[in-house]
Amino acid sequence: MPEQTVRSHPSPRALLDKYGLRAKKSWGQNFLGDEQILDGIARLAVESPGERVVELGAGLGHLTARLAAHGGVVVAVERDRDMARVLRGELGERVTLLEADAARLDYGALAAGGRIAVVGNLPYHLTSPILFSLLDQADHVSRAVFLVQAEVAERLAASPGTKDWGLLSVLLQQRATVSLERRVPRGAFLPPPRVESAVVRVGFGEALVPVDDPAWFRRVVKAGFAQRRKVLSNALAGAGLGAPEVILGALAEAGVEPRRRGETLSVEEWARLARALPKIAAER
């Protein structure tokens, strides 16, 4: 199936003027209109024609049009009724419009027995809820391509032992490969945001580091990062994951020195610690 020709999509300013709208600051609306960057994001999201692609926060439809042009079967998710009106007016039946909350989607239903690609320009205040929802439903997702604040992208793609390594770094990299693809300057948006942005790609498949109980793994990692300045033995005990002697025993079994801090542990070390903790706790 050849790539479709991209129909001329008016600039963000032209579309806002056409529909008598303004970007809503409270919704974190910053519209990307740079054609080269939009095309790059679409190519990362749609790897082969006919793929089902779910776009979170489709906005004025600039990326939506690119995804469709690259052969994606697009479900455009947008809960702002004003934006939904623009999408219906500009893209019509070229895409399926779903007026829903992007942080509360059922990816299994959208995947319809297969796997979907997920893409979107994520407002800062919704980034974490969307990522946690994605992790909970990762079995239905082949890849995710997100435009996020640059500092968030750096955290997601961080390495152990760096200041950016944190809860979401560990949880995502336990399940997927994460790469920071490109940085996006403020001037590429209307209105320009206060910070720079970046494109991050998350590739899902089999878990890179198997864990016995994903919910318990998340709880242990969250406890370890809850108070970053505390050493692990104190952080885990303070989070109620066991008596000090139980925590020390689990750390020893996992081969983790108790005075290390959470940001120094690799995903593999976190997985060993999560396996050790419930087993020792059950023996008390």
TrEMBL record:
Domain Ribosomal RNA adenine methylase transferase N-terminal: 37-206
Keywords of the record: Cytoplasm, Methyltransferase, RNA-binding, rRNA processing, S-adenosyl-L-methionine, Transferase
GO terms, molecular function: methyltransferase activity
CDD domains in the record: AdoMet_MTases (cd02440)
Enzyme Commission code(s) on record: 2.1.1.182
Pfam family, one: RrnaAD
Keyword match S-adenosyl-L-methionine: yes
Membrane-spanning parts: none
InterPro entries the record matches: KsgA/Erm, rRNA_Ade_diMease-like_C, rRNA_Ade_Mease_Trfase_CS, rRNA_Ade_methylase_Trfase_N, rRNA_adenine_dimethylase, SAM-dependent_MTases_sf
Annotated positions binding S-adenosyl-L-methionine: N30, L32, G57, E78, D101, N121
Domain of life, per lineage: Bacteria
Top EC class, one word: transferase
Biological process, per Gene Ontology: methylation
Location in or out of the cell: Cytoplasm
Catalyzed chemical reaction(s): adenosine(1518)/adenosine(1519) in 16S rRNA + 4 S-adenosyl-L-methionine = N(6)-dimethyladenosine(1518)/N(6)-dimethyladenosine(1519) in 16S rRNA + 4 S-adenosyl-L-homocysteine + 4 H(+)
Function, in words: Specifically dimethylates two adjacent adenosines (A1518 and A1519) in the loop of a conserved hairpin near the 3'-end of 16S rRNA in the 30S particle. May play a critical role in biogenesis of 30S subunits.
Family membership noted in the UniProt record: Belongs to the class I-like SAM-binding methyltransferase superfamily. rRNA adenine N(6)-methyltransferase family. RsmA subfamily.
Name of the protein this chain belongs to: Ribosomal RNA small subunit methyltransferase A
